[in-house]
# Entry
Amino acid sequence: MRVATALRRWIDAGASAPAQTGTGIDWPRVLPFLLVHAGCLGVLWTGASAVAVATAICLFWLRMFAITAFYHRYFSHRAFRTSRLSTRRSRASTFPAKIRSAAR
# Structure
């Protein structure tokens, strides 16, 4: 039951969360992120071509530019209108909840 609740909260951060009793790590919620990042170590066994490395670097910089451009244009210039849902969704995918709550 605890794993199902953690998976639901992992997908929907607004899902009802039990009152936190401590400051421990919620392992069922953190484990998928650890596995994805540990999977990157697979390159040590399979190797990486120059094309794969160049593609990864280009996609990283493209993503960082897109996120920066979105926030700059939206918050500095109000160059476009967006619904509260799309703004909330983009913030949720960019910044962890603890950072957002600390910034308020």
The mean pLDDT is 76. The helical segments are 2-11, 27-39, 43-46, 50-77, 84-94, 97-103. Residues 48-104 form one domain.
